[in-house]
Structures are given as structure tokens and as C-alpha cells.
Design goal:
The protein is α+β, with helices and mostly antiparallel strands. It has 7 helices and 5 strands.
Amino acid sequence: MSEQEFQISEQEFQEFQALVQHIEGTETNNFFELAKILGRDPLKDFVGADLSGTDLSGGKLSNADLHHVDLSNAFLSGADLSGADLSGADLSGADLSGADLSGADLSGADLSGSKINNATKLDFQWHLAWENAQKRISKISQAEKEIEPLIGKELIKRVKELGKLSKGQKAKACGYYTKTKNGVERVNMMRFLNALVDAEGIQLDSLPSTSKYGGRSANSRRISVNSNGNLLISSAYTKQMALQPGDEFEIILGQKHIYLKKLEREVGSNSNVKQLSQVK
């Protein structure tokens, strides 16, 4: 997009600032109160919105248009969703305990991992869909139990195979999760997304991906000056370039960088010079 497309009038900017200040000044985190402040109607103005993890418990959302809304891990206990359009919505992991979903349209909705109880009102066909979703998740969990995190082409292939599952479920199925001492599973979404970026070969910046143990990878591009004032380069680079003891390098200093260039063993030859590292 061009810069012109992002331009707004002075009046629009002032109205936006006033709205931000109004929101910052409020002491509530209630979704319905915030929607009122923003002048939004919860029954029709959130189509396709990301409401994941939002607390909508007890909300009056009868006949609401919520198709393709991300309600994953949302709190909907006791909410009135009767007659609501939830087609294509992501309800994975949502708490639907005691919610009224009678007459709601759940076609294409993701119900995997969602919670219902005897007080939940759910039409028969959607109750069957909910049961099938839980069985599917159970099979995936069993098949992917304790797997090593996938990387590269295998990761991309697996993500495509998982189809319409939520981001969290895909991350878990690809091995990007940990278990606490209490057995609670926690998805590491950041590691998962970083691995996808690496798998696609996209270099966003000079910072490396983290290893599965939380540290930097062997090919980390960030080093620091030690207490002796020296810079040490990982052996991963020397091995990758098949360097031998005695190989010499020319040091070229820039304003904010250091270049190391390998010198050929033959005297007078400056061709095929290889760049080893750039430290910013």
C-alpha cells in the first residue's frame, strides 16, 4: 500500500486520540462495556473478529452474527447464544458450560477441545459434531504424544495436513508444547511461529531462532564481547566453512560492523574470498 492510503484527516486523528484516552481512562475490562464505549454492537459488529480468550460469560448474544469469529479459549459459560450465527467460528477450547446454543448455526465451526456440561443447550446435530471433534483431538493427541518439534519441510507439510485446526492445536500437534510438573500442557506459540518462518526461509532480521531448550541455536548470529575484550566466534561457523588451523583472515572495520574475510593460502591471490561473519 502507498503512504497516501494510510493518511487520515486531522479531525479523524483527534477523534482517534480521544477514543484511546477514553479507553485508557476506563477501569473496566468488561467486553460489553468496552464495546459500548467504542460504539460497537456485539450482535453484529464483530464478524470475523479475534475474540480469543475473551470473557463473554453470561453475555446476551441471542441471534448475534458471529460467523468466522475466533472464540478459541473464550469464556462463554452461561452465555445466551440461542439462534446465533456461529458458522465457521473457532470455538476450540472455549468454555460453553451452561451456554444456550439452541437454534444456533454451528456449521463449519471448530468445537475441538471446547467444554460443555449437562446445562449446555446444544441441538442434537451439533452435539454429535462436538463429540466427533473431541474424538478427533484425542486421536491427534495420542498420535503426537511426546513428539520432537518438527522443523523445515516436515513442519510445513504437517501444518498443511492439519487443515482447519486452530493455531494452538497445530502447534501442539507439531510438538511445540511443554508439560508442567502438574501435567498441564502449554503451547509454545512463539517457537512454533518462528519455526514456520525459518522453514519458509524468511529472514526477518539478524536475530536467530531459539533452540528447543530456550537458548540460541548453534548458528547464532549474535555474540558479545567477553571480559578480556575479545569476540569469540562459534565453531559452528568454522566447521561449516571447513576451516583449518592456521587459516588467516583480513579484518575490515566499518562504523558499526566488523568483516572477517578469509585469505587464500596462495600468495598474491585475492580471489574467491569468503565472508565468514558480520557482527553488528
